[in-house]
Amino acid sequence: MELLVASAVGILTAAGIYLILRKRTFPVILGLSLVSYAVNVFLFATGRLMVNAPPILNKYEEVAYTDPLPQALVLTAIVISFGMTAVVVMIALGAFLSSRDDRIDMTSNTQTGEDA
Fold it and tell me: pTM score > 0.85 for this model?
């Protein structure tokens, strides 16, 4: 089980970084989402992977439990990543509407002699 989760985190991270390095805005947004999913799975896995174990301590008997803190962190991270994705989509949409192109160019217009 741990190997499967570790592989999933690695694959999501690798695919996200690959997409972040593209020259268009839409793959960059998808890459950021994949990296945030990888972080969420990693945070969730830090709470010990247990099946059918409650996230509550029982003071009267010794039972296995899962840590509820990573679950709360993942829930918070999901909300934050959704908000950040919405912000990045709006910034990319504004850049597309102003320039009619969604390429991410790091070159400036001063190198070609054109004025902005």
Answer: no
CB 94 within 8 Å of CB 72:
no
* Tokens (6 digits) for 17: 């970084």
Token pair for 73:
């962190």
**Tokens 């970084």 belong to which residue?**
17
| Distance from C-alpha of 30 to C-alpha of 12, rounded to nearest angstrom | 11
- Dihedral angle, C-alpha 31, 32, 36, 41, nearest 10 °: 0
Residue 78's φ and ψ, nearest 5 degrees, are -65, -45
- CA separation, residue 21 to residues 49, 54, 64, 82, 116 (Å): 32, 41, 43, 21, 26
Phi, psi of 20 (to 5 degrees): -65, -30
pLDDT in tens, 92-106: 888 788 877 777 776
Identify the residue whose tokens are 């934050």. 80
Position of tokens 């593209």? 22
Contact between residue 66 and residue 51 where contact means Cβ atoms under 8 Å apart: no
Amino acid code (one letter) for 1 = M
